């Protein structure tokens, strides 16, 4: 946090602890399949990965929701699984299957992957950041991101989404030494990846730990809290003015440990967390972001406004970033998003 710097971006000022009457707004998965302009470009590109690796198209997609809804921040259009892809584990998306990585990683891959120059393949991502920053107005922030090592590791070890919570936990017990080596490798690569995004123009970075939930506390310390602390500390040592936001999904009261880290400038709460609990236990340590259920936006109507109003009222006297508790689902009507933004900006909660 650097209080002497005043940013022209409301989002960055808020993460630096300043309070505005109307909070800044952006949304997880704000670019994506619910937007017709996204679907059009996606069809032209042929595949999601072609989009991710094409700076002109990825930059255009990053800007689409900011133009449409006048949001306070853009988030780089990319994916958390580009790091394994760049290390040599080919990423693909089969219809209805979600992401797949091939081949499944083994201990023999660790040194081989460590020696890979990921920037060959990820250079286009830094180019997307550069192009996008040049297009954005000064009062709009550009958010870079990466997956947390644990969440990326679950895909690398399984080859796909590990939807069964027991199978997910088992990854830790099967071969803890291998898991630790993999997480250390991902910590190293992620620090480098995020620093390059910042050097290219990202104003803040967010770490997504989607699969942190449901792990026993001491295991979570090893696979999530410690690796995220290392990444955030190294990124902030190199770029002290760049806010770091953590989003470990589903970790319950463990959230306090992340929020108390001096490197944690923002903490994304997920939809399962009681916002009143977050206000009481997290806002004193960090800037809380999000929480709002994306399914409520898909449903829309007066109920959506009422529910959003409850979050806004709870956090009215502390810095807060309005956002979701996870990404939009594809069937979300864009008109509901427009109505929600208008409601938040209107201030009549
Ligand atoms: O708008 C944004 O939020 C920025 C771009 C972004 C995407 N993925 C684009 C995307 C970000 C930040 C992510 C993060 C991501 N990717 C996470 C962490 C956050 C979360 O949602 O939990 C995870 C776990 C992934 C891995 C991944 N990539 C999954 C599970 C999927 C969905 C598969 C499916 O078909 O539903 C993707 C694909 C993906 N990433 C899409 C988008 C817009 C959809 C791709 C398409 O157009 O088909």
Structural class: alpha/beta
List the uncertain runs: none
Q: How many DSSP-defined strands?
A: 9
Based on Cα principal axes, name the global outline: globular
Order the strands across the largest sheet as they lie in space.
1-4-5-6-7-8-9
| Topology as a string of helices (H) and strands (E) | HHHHEHEEHHEHHHEHEHEHEHHEH
Helix content: 40-55%
C-alpha Rg (nearest Å): 19 Å
**Largest beta-sheet details:** 7 strands, parallel
What is the overall number of helices? 16
Question: What can you see in these coordinates?
Answer:
The protein has 349 residues and is an alpha/beta fold. Helix content is 51%, strand content 12%. The protein has helices spanning 10-15, 36-45, 48-52, 55-69, 82-87, 109-114, 119-135, 149-158, 165-174, 176-200, 217-238, 255-259, 275-281, 294-299, 301-314, 334-346, and strands at residues 73-75, 90-94, 98-102, 141-147, 204-209, 244-248, 266-269, 287-290, 320-321. A hairpin with a 3-residue loop joins strand 2 and strand 3 (98-102). Helix 8 (149-158) packs across helix 10 (176-200), helix 10 (176-200) packs parallel to helix 11 and helix 15 packs across helix 16. It is globular and about 60 Å long. The two termini are 30 Å apart. The chain binds coproporphyrinogen III (CP3). Coproporphyrinogen III binds next to strand 3 and strand 4.
């Amino acid at each position: 946090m650097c209080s002497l710097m005043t940013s022209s971006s409301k989002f960055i000022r808020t993460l630096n602890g300043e309070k505005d009457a109307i909070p800044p707004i952006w949304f997880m998965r704000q670019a994506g399949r619910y937007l017709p302009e996204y679907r059009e470009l996606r069809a032209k590109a042929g595949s999601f990965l072609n989009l991710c690796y094409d700076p002109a198209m990825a930059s255009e997609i990053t800007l689409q929701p900011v133009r449409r809804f006048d949001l306070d921040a853009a988030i780089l259009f990319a994916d958390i699984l580009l790091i394994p892809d760049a290390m040599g584990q080919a990423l693909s998306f089969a219809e209805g299957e979600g992401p797949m990585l091939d081949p499944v990683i083994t201990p023999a891959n660790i040194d081989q992957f460590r020696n890979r120059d990921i920037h060959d393949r990820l250079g286009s991502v830094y180019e997307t950041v550069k192009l996008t920053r040049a297009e954005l107005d000064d009062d709009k922030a550009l958010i870079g991101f990466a997956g947390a090592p644990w969440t990326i590791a679950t895909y690398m070890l399984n080859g796909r989404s590990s939807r069964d919570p027991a199978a997910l936990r088992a990854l830790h017990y099967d071969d803890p030494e291998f898991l630790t080596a993999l997480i250390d490798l991902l910590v190293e690569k992620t620090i480098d990846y995020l620093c390059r995004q910042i050097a290219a123009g990202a104003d803040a970075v967010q770490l997504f730990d989607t699969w942190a939930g449901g792990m026993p506390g001491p295991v979570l310390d090893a696979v999530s809290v410690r690796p995220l602390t290392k990444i955030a500390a190294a990124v902030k040592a190199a770029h002290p003015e760049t806010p770091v936001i953590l989003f470990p999904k589903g970790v319950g009261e463990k959230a306090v440990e992340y929020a108390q880290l001096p490197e944690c400038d923002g903490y994304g709460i997920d939809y399962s967390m009681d916002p009143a609990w977050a206000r009481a236990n997290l806002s004193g340590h960090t800037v809380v972001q999000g929480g709002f259920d994306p399914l409520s936006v898909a449903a829309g109507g007066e109920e959506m406004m009422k529910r959003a109003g409850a979050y806004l009222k709870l956090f009215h006297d502390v810095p807060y970033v309005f956002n979701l508790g996870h990404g939009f689902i594809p069937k979300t009507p864009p008109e509901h998003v427009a109505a929600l933004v208008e409601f938040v900006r209107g201030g009549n909660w």
